[in-house]
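Need residues for this backbone.
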């Protein structure tokens, strides 16, 4: 059975007018990632990603407050260690981890940064290409001067994608992938209305064990049949990629999802 890896790319379109399409830039993955073989060594929830707390999704007000508290209580290390200092201001209330194993979602819960035995086993069995969803509930430490903030229960979450030891790569890397999509999709969409709709489109495809592009389909239409066909044809005509490899050096299939705008999904 082929291992498939869901890997998302974010393409930001900047439209400088309506007379002709503008260039786009490739900004990379939407989610942080963790290599499959690293999951065997994880002892703390922060081992899943060095930027877990930094990227933890919170309501905007809570995100601003968390960063402000970290600045106030970790002044010297805030700039030297931008990912550190969170443990000096927060107490964990619960850590919920959900993974997918053979297509089945498994959830395990602990009360500390240190992973429980159940959580360790859970993440070790996570399917390659699936997302590990981490939900952290916390309060600020009682010694903080703002007692109202200190008593507040806050919840944040983050998806972390499980990736292989070596991911599939377009020939020439991301810069060439950007150029290819620019030349074969964006510059060929000449109709004004179709170009405006292009940011709505999401295309899925997989790169098999030999690097060949397979199973191309529109996950979300551009709402223009001609543009959708143009996207599908361009992806189908891609040159072979360098295939992904697992930790044993074996080639594995990898699935890609490319949203052509800021609201393209995950």
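Answer:
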């Amino acid at each position: 059975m082929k291992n498939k890896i869901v890997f998302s790319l974010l393409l930001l379109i900047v439209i400088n007018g309506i007379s002709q399409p503008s260039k786009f830039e490739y900004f990379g993955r939407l989610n942080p990632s963790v290599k499959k073989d690293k999951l065997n060594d994880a002892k703390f929830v922060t081992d899943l990603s060095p930027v877990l707390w930094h990227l933890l999704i919170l309501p905007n007000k809570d995100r601003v407050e968390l960063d402000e508290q970290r600045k106030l209580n970790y002044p010297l290390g805030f700039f030297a260690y931008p990912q550190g200092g969170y443990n000096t201001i927060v107490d964990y209330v619960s850590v919920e981890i959900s993974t997918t194993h053979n297509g089945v979602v498994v959830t395990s819960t602990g009360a500390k940064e240190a992973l429980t035995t159940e959580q360790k086993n859970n993440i070790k069995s996570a399917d390659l290409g699936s997302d590990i969803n981490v939900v952290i509930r916390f309060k600020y430490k009682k010694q903080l001067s703002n007692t109202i903030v200190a008593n507040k229960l806050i919840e944040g979450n983050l998806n972390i994608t499980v990736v292989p030891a070596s991911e599939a790569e377009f020939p020439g890397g991301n810069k060439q992938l950007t150029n290819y999509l620019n030349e074969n999709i964006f510059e060929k969409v000449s109709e004004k209305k179709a170009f405006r709709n292009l940011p709505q489109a999401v295309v899925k495809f997989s790169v098999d064990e030999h690097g060949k592009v397979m199973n191309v389909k529109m996950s979300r239409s551009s709402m223009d049949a001609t543009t959708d066909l143009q996207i599908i044809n361009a992806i189908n005509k891609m040159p072979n990629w360098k295939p992904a490899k697992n930790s044993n050096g074996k080639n594995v299939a990898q699935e890609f999802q490319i949203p052509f705008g800021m609201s393209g999904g995950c």
